[in-house]
Amino acid sequence: MIELRLHKDVYDGAAVDAAMKQFGRYARLTARDEASHWVVQIEATTPARARTVAGELGNAALGGSTKARPAVQP
Amino acid sequence: MASLPSIPGELASADVASGVVRLTVREELYPLDAVFAAAFTFIKDCWVVVDRADAAHWAIALTPKAAGASAELLEQWVGGFANELLACAYRHRLAKDHRATVEAVTAAALAGALGPPSLDELEDFDFSNEAFEDPLGIAMSWEDKYGKKAKAGDAAPAGSTDDDDGGAP
Amino acid sequence: MKALIKVGYGCNDHCTFCHTLDVRHVDAPADEIDRKIDRARALGHTMVVLSGGEPTIRPELVRWARRVAARDMDFGLVTNGRVLSYPAVVAELLALRLRYVYLSLHGGSRTIHNRLVRADAFAETYGALAQLTGRGLDLKVNCVVTLQNVDHLRGVVDAVRPFPDVTLKFSMVEPKGGGAALFAALSPRVSDAAARVVDAIEYGLATAGAAGPRFAHGGFPLCLVPGHEHRFADLKTDRFATMVEVGEPDYFPVDDDNKLQPAEPCAGCALAGPCPGLYRGYHAALGAGELRPRAGGPRSNSFDYTLEATVRPSPDGACPVLRVGVTPWDPGRHLFVAHGDRVARFRADSRDFNDAALRAIKHDRGQLYLDRSAKDAPDDFARDLIKLARSPRCAPCPEYARCTGLYEPVPDAGFERDDAIVRGWLAALAGDVLDVGCGADDRYDAILAPAAAAGRLRYVGVEPEPARAAARAARCSWAAVRAQALDEVAERGAYDHVLALRSWNHFPDGDRALAQLAALARPGGTVIIVDNVAFGLARTPAQTARARAGAAGFEHFRDDDSHAVVRRAAAAGLAVLDHHPVGPATSNQWAVRLRAP
After folding, report:
1. Which of A28, A45, B11, C508 measures 20 to 30 Å from A2, CA to CA?
2. Which residue ranges form the domains of chain A, and what is each CATH number?
3. Same domain, B55 and B124
């Protein structure tokens, strides 16, 4: 089991939800809401698969959070 | 976690067994937008997690997707990321520094512009085929948007009869 | 190297000068572009750049970028930038290796830009620039200069000044598509436009920060942009090797066939090598009267083909060039060399010679050599160079004429054979001999010294470079050597034989030089002129890098072949006694023996 901790200053909650929805069919995902972090637990058939799902889920949540921010433009 | 030969330990460290390298940067120098922008260019090859190290620092963890990362390889990744981060922070600062100039030019542009597309225009647009979001309908061809067919006469320059409407078709 | 793919000609702008005005309804099917992306990888390209029309309005944009990245190539766009005003699109493309953007901005204000693109586009295009700057991109902003914006070019400079990583390029409007249909209404006089561009660039240089922006121009004859010749930019300077239009089955080299350097007045211009010339359509309409050819100025007499890749041999022994395809390779700039079962591919990116000159050197004169020396510039051709000749396997091939060809090393480069002709002429000399531009070397001393010692000839050498003259004088007690240029030699009609051995192309003015040489000879005396034509050297990247870092400077003012001398001789009334021109079966040395009137 891998635990992914995504800081609320960085990650948008909706983006984390969307990422979990996207990767839910590849692994068993459970989430909990801590004071500073969204915490996602990933269980998969093999450790390697869990690692891959965790990594890609983190990337998807990061990408989604980027898009959710106001544009970096003058 | 082991330190990396050419990077100070307080900035970066590597866990070779787990294939992870961590970089710590000051938020004051590297705002989150810059971190996001740099991270985005690495997500094809690395898994990236951004966390708060403390109130003043970001901690970025890079895990190369390719298995078997050595200390040297992890050092290359974190070095590349640091370079990208620097470029992104530069851009961020540039955007801030020149905000007034760019805003002035853009504002002048918008002052006489047509304004946002009407609801009718949006309703006519088929979003289902779009691979990227285009809420303003920018990606519509000129002919589709303005309902004209291209012909030589359409290319009349300003000052000719066809351009008396102010330049915008 | 970049490959340019036209994905279709539809666009969300409608520029007055639109090059593809008649085909705006044509878009390539998505799978055609997929195939072309894959083909770019197979051809060894390192970047795919999508163009159009407007590539960003295609819904497949991100998918194509992903396909390019998945094939380990960088991605680029030639675009009006409007879609790139969406931050999310830019972020996604950057993650997919977007590295090059060539963005069209034709005015520094909404009024001017929109007037040219005939859409309310300025805020989006300019907003895209703010999105793209500082991302580590190779970021070019292209401003097409027409009658509608020629008075407002400083405004474009002002608009891009906040973006130091931008290179702002001013391009002369091309008479093509809308630019041809409305030529009179759109096209400024090229000399006027060039003057305005020079003004805008100098204004930009005076007001830009140390970091940039940088400035460039394209489509202007270099004689019209004095002091800014080096700022010329085009697809080749941006390292585009090939391009493919919608519907074309394969790539073609990027070429300059839409432009020309008219013989009158461009022949002999010192800028001819790198100059883009005039657009053909402009020349047809308004002629070349505005051009101001530049006399003098030294130029290169060689260029490098640098090793790019090795090509897998065909298991069945078939031609490896035919196997990979004929059309993507530039006839002048690419070079395939076969040796045994190995084939190496080289490419020349020289701007010292234009495409026509490169093709002539390669295919007409056959002057290609493999450099086996470790020198910056080879100085002993017979030992340093191995000649490359078109493979006999090419002879029966139906693709012979349009193919870049397969070349092979040949053992006899012909240097000694061709020089033996000159040695024979020198061995027969008697009387007063003047050697103009004699230099410091002793190449022919073994022939001349005994004749001088025997009193059969009296040798006078003149050399404009004092150090070389002194070196030769110190070594040759049998010779009278003076530090003099041709212009300074006053003994009219004093010599039985006048020699110009490898000095001809060093004379700034060929007509004047031939008249002077002939005048120094007695009536009926001989004038012997020998020189080399330019040649290409196949080199490894390390050899090329070393040569470019080396100190060898340009000494030639022209690249005349023997035919140029024979033409002048006929006009000046000199009889041609012997003429040995350069060809694929010879070395690069030509020789002409003339009789003074």
Report:
1. B11
2. 2-66 (3.30.70)
3. no
Spatial CA neighbour of C121 closest among B148, B146, B131, B128:
B146
pLDDT at B113 over 70: no
A37-43 and A28-33 beta bridge pairing: antiparallel
Amino acid of residue C375: K
Do the domain assignments include residue B6?
A: yes
Interface membership of B92 toward A (CB under 8 Å): yes
Residues of chain C above pLDDT 90, percent: 75
CB C330 within 8 A of CB C241: yes
- For B139, list phi and psi in degrees, rounded to 5: -80, 5
Dist CA C569 CA B20 (whole Å): 77
Mutation target vs C (from B142, B145, B154; most C CBs, 10 A cutoff): B142
B160 assigned to some structural domain: no
Cα C2 from Cα C46, distance rounded (Å): 6
Interval C170-194: pLDDT, tens: 999 999 999 999 999 999 999 999 9
Q: Which of residues 9-68 of C touch B (CB under 8 A)?
A: 10-18, 21-22, 24-25, 54, 56-63
How far is C-alpha C284 from the chain's CA centre?
A: 24
Cα(C177)–Cα(C23) distance, integer angstroms: 9
Query: pLDDT of C371-393, one tens digit each?
Result: 888 777 777 888 888 999 998 88
Q: Do B32 and B58 contact (CB within 8 A), yes or no? A: yes
Distance between CA atoms of residues C81 and C62, nearest Å: 15
Report which of B16, B14, B62, B54 is spatially closest to residue B38, judged by C-alpha positions: B62
d(CA C2, CA C19): 21
Instruction: Name every residue whose Cβ is closer than 8 Å to that of residue C111 and which is 6 or more positions away in sequence.
Output: B112, B167
DSSP code, position C284: H
Domains and their CATH numbers in chain C = 2-254+277-286 (3.20.20.70), 302-410 (no CATH), 415-533+549-595 (3.40.50.150)
Higher-pLDDT residue of C541, C548: C541
Could you read off the pLDDT of C34-92 as tens digits, one per residue? 999 999 999 989 999 999 999 999 999 999 999 999 999 999 999 999 999 999 999 99
- Cβ–Cβ of A72/B32 closer than 8 Å? no
Q: Cβ–Cβ contacts within 10 Å for residue C593, how many?
A: 19
**B94 and B125 both lie in a single domain:** no
Burial label, C263 (beta-carbon count in 10 A; 0-12, 13-18, 19+): exposed
> What residues in B contact C128, CB-CB < 8 Å?
none
Residues B80 and B9 in one domain: yes
Q: Give the dihedral sign, CA B95/B98/B102/B104.
A: positive
Q: Report the number of distinct structural domains present in chain B.
A: 2
- Written as six digits, the tokens of C381 are 């051709």
Q: Is A71 on the interface with B (CB under 8 A)?
A: no
- For A6-39, the pLDDT digits (tens) are 999 999 999 999 999 888 878 889 999 999 999 9
Neighbours of C541 (CB within 10 A): 11
Cα distance between residue B5 and residue C542, in whole Å: 30
d(CA C129, CA C106): 13
Domain at B57, CATH number:
3.30.70
| Chain Cα centroid distance, residue A61 | 5
Q: Using CB atoms, which residue from A63, A66, A73 is nearest to C131?
A: A73
Residue C137 CA to residue C552 CA, distance in Å, equals 34
Q: B143: domain range?
A: 115-147
Residue B104 with chain A: CB contacts under 8 Å: none
Residue B65 in contact with partner chain A when CB distance is under 8 A: yes
